[in-house]
Amino acid sequence: MNNDRFYVNISGIKGDKRIPSRVLEEMIQNAVEQGHRAIEVNAYGQHGIGGRLWRSGNEKIKIRIQGHSGQRTGSLGFPNTEIEIMGPASDDIGWLNAGAEIIVHGNASNGAMNGGAQGKVYIGGNIGARGMTMTKHNPRFDPPELWVLGAAGDYFGEFMAGGIAVVCGFNTSYNESVLGYRPLVGMVGGKVFCRGDATGFSQSDAKIVPITDVDWDWLCTNLMNFLQKIEKKELFDRLSKRSEWTLIRAKTPQEKLIGKGILAMHSFRQDVWDRELGKGGLIGDLMEVERGTIPLITKGEWRRMVPVWEHAKYKAPCQANCPTGIPVQERWHLIRKGLADEATSMGLKYTPFPATVCGYLCPSPCMASCTKNLQYITPVNVRLLGRAGEKAELPVSAEKSGKRVAVIGAGPGGISAAWHLTLKGHDAVLFDESKQIGGKISSVIPDSRIPKETLQNELERVKKIIPDIRLEHKITPKSFQKIKKEFDYVVVAAGARKPRMLPIPGVEFAVSANDFLEKAKQNPAKLKDELQKIKESLVKSKEDQTKSNEVQSAPFKKVVIIGAGNVGCDVATEAHRIGAETITLIDVQKPAAFGKEKEDAQAVGATFHWPCFTKEITSQGVILDDGEVIEADTVVISIGDVPDTDFLGKDISTRNGFVSVNEFNQTSDPTIFAIGDIVGPGLLTHAIGSGKRTAEAIDSIISGREPEMLDARSEIDKSRISLEYFNPMVKSYNTLEECGSECASCGRCRDCSICVHVCPEGAIERFESEDGAFEYKADPEKCIGCGFCKGACPCGIWNIVTNSPL
Amino acid sequence: MSSNRTIKPSSLSLSDLPWQICWKKDRCTLCGQCTAVCPVQAISLSVFRKRNIADSMNPSNLLKLANSSSKTDSSLQTDTLSHNERPLSSFETYYGIRQKTTIEEACIGCAMCSMVCPNDAIEPRRSHGIDRYRFHINQDGEPRKRGGRRNSTDSLLDRIKFIRISMLTDPALDAGRHEFELRTLLGRILSPKENINRLRNNGWIPPVREIYPLIIGGMSFGALSPTMWEGLQMGVAYLNEELGMPVRMSTGEGGCPPRLLRSRFMKYVILQIASGYFGWDEIIHAIPYMKEDPCAIEIKYGQGAKPGDGGLLMWHKVNKLIAAIRGVPQGVSLPSPPTHQTQYSIEESVAKMIISMSMAWGFRVPVYPKISASSTSLAVLNNLTRNDYASALAIDGEDGGTGAAYSVSMDHMGHPIASCIRDNYLNLVKLGKQNEIPIFAGGGIGKNGNLAANAAALIMLGASGVQIGKYVMQAAAGCIGTETDRCNVCNTGICPKGITSQDPRLYRRLDPEDVAQRIVDLFVSFDIELKKIVAPLGRSTSLPIGMSDALGIDDYQVAQRLNIKYVV
Question: What residues in B contact A784, CB-CB < 8 Å?
């Protein structure tokens, strides 16, 4: 019974009834169990015939199938099994084959060897779709093999993961690929030999490789074997022409990564895009197109932002806020360079009164506006610098122009005008009705505010510069016209000497602040006498005998000052000096007094009251609107002064009693200029500044130029200054050197070279010219436009601006 | 910072800003790259003051003091210090990166500083909670404008699921293995009866294009930089000619470079005409020389970013190149009014514009309007259905748009795209014309990165294809904008990636080749993803337009509104 030459026959039909697949399977398994090793099955389309025959162990089993083999013949086949189908096969022949050898003497339909892992399937005809799909190769066994005499149907070898397929392409009915439509999609392993056209397979999954001699030997040997199995040995010669065969294998994962076999974009641009559009591509006709990209950090013209060294482009706040326009920062720079003499003599180019005004009398808008105030750091002390100017070297005047300018009024404004005109080479003549020059500085400002000697020294210096000073020269309308004729230009600096008084009853018993101050300064005893007389007359006028005793017993004890500005404070200080006991300043609004004057007044015990509206001045004192009485022996009115412009005549236009001028202090008569309080109330430094600007304007006109603002630069943005470099705890400065080094030098390069060291690219260099002038420059080829120079600059010199468009 | 300073209502502190620069002193090398690259100069080098206090309890401090200060008495004792003296306090300075707090220099969060920092020492961080900055970006009474981005991560499209997974019910398909017909039709398709009738009588058959359903929406030459624009066109050409994907791109309203007009690539281009009519005389001049007809003409009536509002290209952006392409003199501002001036009704618009544009190319080119999604969209569609010359309707939803727009328009104007597309499609179904006039959807597709899913959802709701803009900018050019108000300065010309700038110092950062390659990547990967969605649905023979039985959402109201399944 063990002889395989004797086939036991199992029929798939019993009578006229087809045996179900389940029963036929049972019958075949039973036969194997009983020891049959050769079984012929007359099949009627039963499913899975010949598979799973493990019961014979290692012994070989032959199954011969006659009739219609059903789907999945030999599925889950074992290595011991040999199946021979004498006709065509249905779907999924050798499905999930684990070792069976299956011979089909005809065509096989779809899914031949689908999922096969071992074993061999020989097809003596064509196969349908999806043959050799999902096959694998388990390294423990030989790979599965599918041999097809004819051609494969569509989607051959999908997801093939191992095994060898040989498609002989014999007598194929199509002109197209012997592997059908879209073969080898998703192939990851194994190889396919095919004879004939194999185009159309998935190029991304598989590739054609040369057939080696080893491959060819294997193919020839096994081809002969295959042909024997399907009983077509005679075809060997026809099929064994090496040149007709192609070997395709799966790409390795690495091969799949490289080169997807499509055109690189760079080549596309060059060979397709630019060829169609022309050189430069899309917009090559409209502009020059450079290829390639630029980095995020760029240099040279590709920088978005560029640094600029804006040295002295702006005024420092001190200079911008100085009515005289003194470049304080430049003077501190000279101090830092050890050029103290140059620093002090520079002052004289701006003001004849550096010590008197900058050093003592000026409320110092420069310091009030100092950048350092932003962090509550004490501004450097300009007064020290001012006072040093007392001994400054005399400036040298320019060559004589021969032009003559009369300056009427030898106050600070007039002196300033005459001073600058003289320095510019013009003959300036100073006229004043008083006995001395200096105007209010000499006559009105209390000695407590400034040492007499300092003032005297500076006035002497003025006299040295201005040779022709005509004092006690009262100007009348007539003499003014004469002067006008005699001189090329006239500068009117007559000041405001007429006190403003209040239109109230009893005003005749009050004294004006100027009167008070002038007399207190020159002859206090005489002043007191006069005040006593006024008091007495007041009492008499009211026939107030009861008070007379009091008046006599308390002369000049209580002083009330109406108008609590800085002049009022000066009155208070002077009143105290000459013996007043209670001093009261009243005002209709919050007192405008500030600075040294206010402090001095408070120091002598003066009190401030507001708002107080004066109704009347009586023997009792000052009566307010609300009936309150502020007792007073003496009442001083300090609500400002108005100028006397009568002598100018009607040709010079005025407004509200002040002379109208343009920005160059020119009046409606182009040869006549007006400065100082006659133009409007202001500080000493305002008068000095207008004196200077007027002198410059006249100088311009004399030399045939349009007058212009000599320094129209704007004030620097304070946020550009790095105050962090300064110690915020320094509260006072003792020497010029200390001030120099602590000055923030806003907008004025202090030549510290911090930028050179901070620049990350080493792009900044300092250049010095022969005259000692220096400049910092950023080399565009090194600079990246980071703005570090700007961020680190102590003085706000560096700026970072948008680069000019390309 | 100044201690002695006053504040104004718009004086902001660092914590008021939407983005804070986190700078690590210990890692910084002070190389200057961050301040050099910052597009808005939000950061700068600054000098910092540091105060050191040595306490007088420690004798060694006194010794140090004695050695260093002017007080040279080495036997200095605590007792010898006056109570008002502070000699133990000293100052030093250091340099660091400081963030500015001015409105115009506020950090935009672009993180270019992080990109260039060699030491990872700097990065912007989003502030927690609501910033105070937003209340002040209307200085001088000028409301905020920004690049097109709604700054909302909400996306209804993201929530739609594809619930119909065919495994054994329909042909089971494999996205990687099977072939899919993913092309769509742009053009008027006549009913079969009418088509046969016209064929028989030699009548006019409307032009129809077979195109890829993912269209690059209108972004003008001018709004985009030359490198970006060329990169997009190059990528599109590559997709067509090398990969056989019929991808199309709309020019936006800014004309079209003369060379492109005269090239075979013209067939990949949808020319847009809008209310400013920029560049159209150049297009007309090119007609006799055109090798190919354009794909289609898009008449822009509205866009998602600023529905009902026009645009303005500022004069300083109108450089020589832009001027040449738009056919205008250099350095003048270019307004696109909200409406086309001579059209006062839908009927008139349809009659005038569509027929005029059709005539330009001998009725061989499809012409369709693009409108912003609106509750009135149906009225437009109904008009189009009655006109054979109308090829399609493009609708841009509230999330759409890339151009400059007022924030108020961007944030609060407009209609969501999903229900608008659905209403329009169902209306066509009611008319029996759903296969005759295609609807294209735009606005927020892929806003959170889910490009294929959003596109597929809209297609299944009834769109024949979708238009994308922002996604292209992000995926193809590395736009760093986010829906959390990052960057968003496209309108100001300072785009740090060079996408929306006309400054060569910025746009030369972008290589057209790289953009083109990313366009290819984007479309190829979209194609795979779209297949991954349609394959399980069992659809391979045509795009599943209106296949809403495949859609579900976990919100009952939305499901009802969109007429899709409610799934939980």
Answer: 32-33, 36
DSSP 3-state of A799: strand
Q: Which of B419, B384, B409, B367 is nearest to B250 (CA)?
A: B367
CB-CB neighbors (< 8 A) of A317 in chain B: none
Determine the Cα–Cα distance for residues A163 and A144; give it in Å rounded to an integer. Answer: 5
CB contact under 8 A, B243 and A784: no
3-class SS of residue A695: helix
Task: Work out whether strand A621-624 and strand B208-211 pair parallel, antiparallel, or are unpaired.
Answer: unpaired
Residue A260, pLDDT score: 59
C-alpha A360: how far from chain center: 44
Chain B: residue whose CA lies nearest to A279? B259
Chain A positions in Cβ-Cβ contact with residue B35 (cut-off 8 Å): 786-788, 791
- From residue A274, give the alpha-carbon distance in Å to each of A279, A439, B241, B265: 6, 86, 14, 11
pLDDT of residue B159: 97
Residues B34-50: pLDDT tens digits?
999 999 999 999 999 99
Task: Tell me if A791 and B242 make a contact (CB, 8 A cut-off).
Answer: no
Question: What is the spatial distance between Cα A400 and Cα A417, in angstroms, rounded to a whole number?
Answer: 16
On whether the CB atoms of residues B253 and B506 are closer than 8 A, the answer is no
Is the domain defined by A500-641 classed in CATH 1.20.1740.10?
Answer: no
> What's domain A321-497+643-712's architecture?
3-Layer(bba) Sandwich (3.50)
Q: Which residue has the higher pLDDT, B333 or A98?
A: A98
Q: Which of residues 320-359 of A touch B (CB under 8 A)?
A: none
Pick from A290, A719, A784: CB nearest B36: A784
The percentage of chain B sitting over the pLDDT mark of 90, rounded to a whole number, equals: 69
Mutate to test the interface with A, among B37, B68, B100, B110 (most CBs of A within 10 A): B37
pTM across the whole model: 0.84
Name the pLDDT band for B72 (thresholds 50, 70, 90). Answer: very low
Ordered domains of chain B (ranges, CATH): 18-67+87-142 (3.30.70.20), 156-566 (3.20.20.70)
Chain B residues with CB under 8 Å of A725 CB are 47, 93
**Confidence (pLDDT) at A786:** 97
The string of pLDDT tens digits covering residues B222-243 is 889 999 999 999 999 999 999 9
The fold of A87-257 is Pectate Lyase C-like (2.160.20)
CB-side exposure of A520: number of CA atoms within 13 Å? Answer: 26
Single out the residue of A178, A107, A104, A165 nearest to residue A136, CA to CA: A165
The predicted pLDDT at position A553 comes to 44
